[in-house]
Amino acid sequence: MSTRECRYVAHLDILGMSSIVGNDFDEAWTMLSELVAVRDRIGRLELEFTESGERIRAIDAIHMVTFSDTILLFTKGESPPELKCMIVLLTEIFHKALCRCVPIRAGLAHGVFSFNLDKAMYAGPALIEAYRVGEAAQWLGIALGDSIREKARTLGMKSGKSDVVVDWPVPVKAGTVECAVINWPAVVAHDLKAKPPITVPQFYAAFVKAFGLFEDLPLDVKAKYSNTVTFMNQMLAVHAGA
């Protein structure tokens, strides 16, 4: 059975997976297995939103589909609680993936999206937008498409006193694009082992086994990690002073 409605759609994949497969397939498979383990754990979560008292099981609100190094998430509808659930789950996947040394980036959008679970068919403008906004970003992070920017902002989600959705000049190949993004550093600040400011070598250390020494990386790949650390330190500084 196929369905065609407006939904919230997220596209998430592992950064640099093709190079890992070419250099060390066993390491690539291990990394993919770690990401799937994160997905399965997150899928069992039950979320409670204190302002409304509403409890939502992730599996009841969001479909999660994995193919190759990509996870596709999409809601069953387009209600504000479903968007909150999507943001929480997407951020938690990002967080736990980093804890398991899996570098990912993601895009989130809203719009028409059709799927047929029986035939493994998934398509729609929302998926294209989520893919493009996520893949264009030269960092590890979660970027929001224009279609969802105001919807996410009006939720007023907080982590402590910090906004969960913030604006940021997201680095792309041609420069930067002003974009709404998920403030994941504020969300995971309690779980950091190193005190900020974080250095690029500190952040990249978890990925050396998979990608090799930082100094041996291509310049554009180095920039992705540097861009991530710049965002991370800025958000952590704001969070600490909030």
Notes on the structure:
This protein has helices at 17-23, 25-43, 58-61, 80-99, 125-136, 149-153, 184-188, 200-204, 208-211, 219-241; strands spanning 3-14, 46-49, 54-57, 62-67, 70-75, 104-116, 121-123, 142-144, 158-159, 162-163, 165-172, 175-182. It is an alpha+beta fold and 242 residues long. The strands form 3 sheets. Strands 1, 4, 5, 6, 7, 8, 11 and 12 form an 8-stranded mixed sheet that branches. The protein has a two-stranded antiparallel ribbon with strand order 2-3. A two-stranded antiparallel ribbon has the order 9-10. α1 packs across α2 (25-43) and α2 (25-43) packs antiparallel against α4.
Per CATH, the class reads: Alpha Beta
Helix content: 40-55%
Summing up helix and strand content along with how strands pair, one would put the structural category as alpha+beta
The unreliable regions are none
Short description:
With 242 residues, the chain is of the alpha+beta class. The protein has one domain: Alpha-Beta Plaits, CATH 3.30.70.
